[in-house]
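ping. complex inputs:
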Amino acid sequence: MGKRRDTKSRMLETAAELVQRQGYASTGLNQILESSGAPKGSLYFHFPGGKEQLIALALEKSSESLSELLEQVLATAPTPELALEMITGYFGSQLESSQFTKGCPIATVALEQSATSDALHEVCSRTYARWQSAIAARLVREGQTAERAGELASFILSTIEGALLLCRAHRSVEPLRRASTELARTLKGL
Amino acid sequence: MGKRRDTKSRMLETAAELVQRQGYASTGLNQILESSGAPKGSLYFHFPGGKEQLIALALEKSSESLSELLEQVLATAPTPELALEMITGYFGSQLESSQFTKGCPIATVALEQSATSDALHEVCSRTYARWQSAIAARLVREGQTAERAGELASFILSTIEGALLLCRAHRSVEPLRRASTELARTLKGL
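pong. complex structure:
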């Protein structure tokens, strides 16, 4: 069992990393097998639903650890502005150290596949909803009503996701720095 | 010459539409030829640089007409808030009428290809810079300094691009509506 679980985990981690860098369509099953060193038979043994199931589970897993990180930062940072500064700083350093190949781990698949694959739409939508809830929870703690906190959290998440996209397009972290500064102003003015 | 130009234009329009819906990697040359009804030989005749060149020119062309529309709305709307409301309203209706397959025409390629293709990075980056300049120009007219207008325009573009992404992920126009309302508040408070 230990070995089987190892193979499965390795395949999921490799798939998540490849998809973050190059998207869903460019990531072939053979590339996942080769990069993870998994035997060919393991694919349909672990993922009878094929590529769609494998990538959905990979995104689920990679977004789980990022969600936990975001939730922890949002819950413990001294102010929400500082939480957003830490989060955008984290994404910025990921972008710079990967030559702008690693932005949001699910955004490329969300754009490529949300309209056509229900399984991938479902995992992307649920993940974004979870991040939005984590931001909203912190704003409620700062005194916002649940409704207003949800609205602001949607706006904040849009700004960060768009900045991550523009950083990749421009190969520069400037849009993310600007997003962080402007969101801090917005939060201070509440 | 007329017929040749027609074939080339048809191929570019078809490619732009396919790429907007499904991204770069999923769009095959055969699909572009079949959907545009172009003869096979026309591909390397018109686009000796192959798929990368064809898609770069297609994005160039499709973003040109969108850029003109955005510039016109930003230049002529009674207030910048109203301009953003018209722009997000336009994108929202495009999303709804296409079952959430048509968001930003260049975002998917920007995420898939910016890090690896210089030609595609260049056209995406230039297009986003042009949209940002159009927003900034309007803010200068409203009395902002050029520097501050540029900063705000970066923030506004990030928010709209992120909202377009979240609309596709959630199959809902709610993030775009929220972005428009919050950006209007920001602009009114300047």
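The two ends of chain A are 53 Å apart (CA to CA).
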